[in-house]
Amino acid sequence: MAAGAEEASPFNIHPMDQFAIKPLFGGHELNFYTPTNQTLWLAIAVLAIFVLLVMGVRGRALVPSRSQSVAEIIYGFVRKMVEDVTGKQGLAYFPYIMTLFMLILMSNMLGLLPYSFTSTSHIAVTGVLAMLVFLAVTIIGFAKHGIGFLKLFWVMSAPWWIRPVLAIIEVISFFVRPASHSIRLAGNMMAGHAVIKVFAGFAGALGVGAVVPIVAITAVFGLELLVSFLQAYVFAILTCVYLNDALHPGH
Question: pTM higher than 0.90, yes or no?
Answer without folding.
Answer: no
